[in-house]
Amino acid sequence: MSASAITLSGVDKFYGPIDRGVHAVKNLTMEIAKGEIVALLGSSGCGKTSTLRMIAGFEEISRGAISVGGRKVHTLAPVKRNVAMAFEGYSLYPPLTVRENMAFALKAARLPKSEVDAKVASIAKLLEIEDILERYPSFISGGQQQRASLGRALIRNADLHLLDEPMGQLEPQLRAVLRGRIKHFIKERGLTAILVTHDQTEANALADRIAVMEGGVLQQFDTPDMIKQRPANLFTGTFVGEPPMNVFEAYVGNAAGKISLRLPDGLSLDYDHDAFSAPVRDQLLNRERVVIGVRPYAVRRSKEGVPATVSANQWLGDQTHIAADFAGGSLVLVEHDRTRLELGAPINVSIDPKNLHVFDQASGNAISHGMELA
Amino acid sequence: MEHTSLLERILRGIALTLVVIFFMFPIVWIFMMSFQTNETILRIPPQLVFEPTLANYTALITGKLTTVSGTLDIAFMRNLWNSVFLSVTSVAVALLLGVPAAYAFARHKFRGSEDIAFTLLSFRFAPALLVLLPLTLYFQKLGLANTYFGLIWVYQLICLPLILWIVRGYFEDIPADIEYAYRIGGHSWFATFRKIALPLAGPGIAAAGLLAFIFAWNNFVFALVLASADKQPVTVGALAFITSSGIQYGQISAAIVLSITPTLALALYAQRYLVEGLSLGAVKG
Asked: Most B CBs within 10 Å: which of A79, A99, A101, A161, as the mutation test of the B interface?
């Protein structure tokens, strides 16, 4: 990794008076390397857009510091920060055509006209909006406006590209194609980008690293793989992954040479002591209650497993999602074959200990992932 | 295609005709009166057929009013000029002050911003008569009575709140992100105000300006009390036609025709422009 492109240190955002207003972003510290694509992922109101707007300079930060390329920028006007941004609401200039809107972003750079035309043409090709370049924003669809807005941001050669929900309005097929192209475009030019999204597929596909946010707090900042495999806490575990991770509260028991995780309804998952590594075992046995999580893909049907009752069975064309009543809650499992199970059919499920995520019951922080401590 | 029966169309035509007659009749009647002498106007019963004369207009333009009791000097052309000057200048000043203020109120929430905006609006609540006496006394003390400067100042009571509140609404309707997009592209906030906010709010500013102009033009009571003959607008000047030898209906009508012509022309011209401009972005510009 090369020098950091942007650093946020201890950034707080209050809407209203400091310490009394709405605390939208809490003590956010992040470092993003040059050439990296980072996704801010979270549900509505988690502070991800506030973060983006603070970086752009449309919101003041209440505390902390932001530097772009080693330069403290949080006191500078947006114009001096050298960042480009695609807005969620597109924000195209109504009296200008799509072409003019995109070329307009280059005005401050004072390039010769031929170069501007070439840049507009190549971006338009990338985003498949060549045929609407001469149209006005109010005459094109939302998806086209969004691509024009994205183009207006990508055409610039800024230190940092901020993309707020850049593909929310696009059709799924087009979205998949553009994701690949945009990632290639950004990587090829060595641009640094931060995108805000609530779509985890988009975050997974585009980002080198994902910052999961909730309640204004950065929950985890890691590669998509690591977030999937080693969620830092219960929130990340259940938020990322589709269908979401199954979680159950369990009492830890140690009897007859087995570690048993006792679930409601008198059910119990029993494992041999050596199913866990020594440190994980110690952590488990030190606790009375834990929360266990398992991804739907890791739940297996087996003869000796714990009983459950099928409550829904859905064939999606390439996989089956089976929901079952299990331990006073609901358990979802995914199978790759078409499974014919009637509603109410009894099944038995087992969970391999290496697929088990264990979280602290009080704090929600991860204790272990399979054999390893978190 | 819209389906309307013949009967429906006939009824609608009749209704529209009635409305147009109701609203247009006074204007048409005044227009006709302006080409008649007092004698033909006061005939009983009134008649639609008459011999048109330009005497009323001649009298107004030359400033010589001939009545049975002699010739009077009237300053109608001067009044008309005063009206134009006072209204145009007042609206210009109000736009200059009001548009940036409206932008500030729309975009920046600061301590007391709502209170200040409301106070400005409240100028329009108070009946003019309420402030007239103190205002007259102040103006006499300050030497502002019977000056254009003083009148334009007082006219701000009429124009400024109107422009501020209408234009503020238009600014608020512009998504802030459009301005942000421009600013992040390397432009100062002033350039953003000039190049993005002003053009997008243009139709609103024009509408507010037009309305303020009409209100200023029609003002009577401030001008009556605070201005003497040489600074009076037409609204007050028309009083001169009530002479010792009777009311000069012909000249009053001609004066009215002349004094509504500028506002009418402006409204008709601006209406076309407003309709075009209101369909934001739909037209090249």
From this structure: A79
CATH superfamily of A4-239: P-loop containing nucleotide triphosphate hydrolases (3.40.50.300)
Q: Is the pLDDT of residue A84 over 60?
A: yes
The pLDDT of residue A98 is 93
In total, chain B counts a number of residues equal to 285
Which chain B residues contact residue A104 at CB under 8 A?
185
Position A203 scores a pLDDT of 93
Model-wide pTM > 0.90? no
Q: Considering only A213-222, A226-235, B136-145, which range has the smallest mean pLDDT?
A: B136-145
Mind telling me how many Å the CA of A241 is from chain B's nearest CA? 32
Lowest mean pLDDT among A20-24, A117-121, A318-322, B275-279: B275-279
Q: What residues have CB less than 8 Å from B81, skipping those under 6 apart?
A: none
> What architecture is the A246-373 domain classified under in CATH?
Beta Barrel (2.40)
Domain range annotation of chain A: 4-239, 246-373
A85 contact residues in B (CB cutoff 8 A): 180-181, 184
Q: Which amino acid is at B201?
A: A
Nearest to A299 by CA among A340, A257, A246, A260: A246
Instruction: Identify which of B181, B282, B284 has the shortest CB distance to residue A91.
Output: B181
DSSP B191-229: HHIIIIIHHHHHHHHHHHHHHHHHHHHH--HHHHHH--G
B233: its two tokens: 């607008």
What confidence category does residue B121 fall into, taking pLDDT thresholds of 50, 70 and 90?
Answer: confident
Asked if the Cβ–Cβ distance from B178 to A138 is below 8 Å, we say no
* Alpha carbon distance A203, A193 (integer Å): 12
Please identify which residue in the block is written with the tokens 């009577």. Answer: B220
Residue of A nearest to B180 (CA): A58
- Given a contact cutoff of 8 angstroms between Cβ atoms, the answer to whether A7 and A69 are in contact is no
pLDDT 10s digits, B244-281: 777 888 888 888 898 888 888 888 887 766 665 554 43
CA–CA gap between residue B53 and residue B59 (Å, rounded): 11
Q: Does A209 touch chain B (CB under 8 A)?
A: no
Structure confidence at residue A358 (pLDDT): 94
- In sequence order, the 6+-apart residues with CB closer than 8 A to the CB of B174 are B196, B197, B200, B201
Say what the pLDDT of residue B285 is: 32
pLDDT reported for residue B273: 64
What domains are defined for chain B?
Answer: 76-278 (1.10.3720.10)
The reply to whether residue A78 touches residue B177, judged by beta carbons under 8 angstroms, is no
Chain A residues closer than 8 Å to B180 by CB: 56, 58, 78, 85, 87, 91
The answer to whether the CB of A61 falls within 8 A of the CB of A27 is no
With a cut of 90, say whether residue A325 has pLDDT above it: yes
CA-based nearest distance B209→chain A, Å: 22
Which is more confidently placed, A108 or A105?
A105
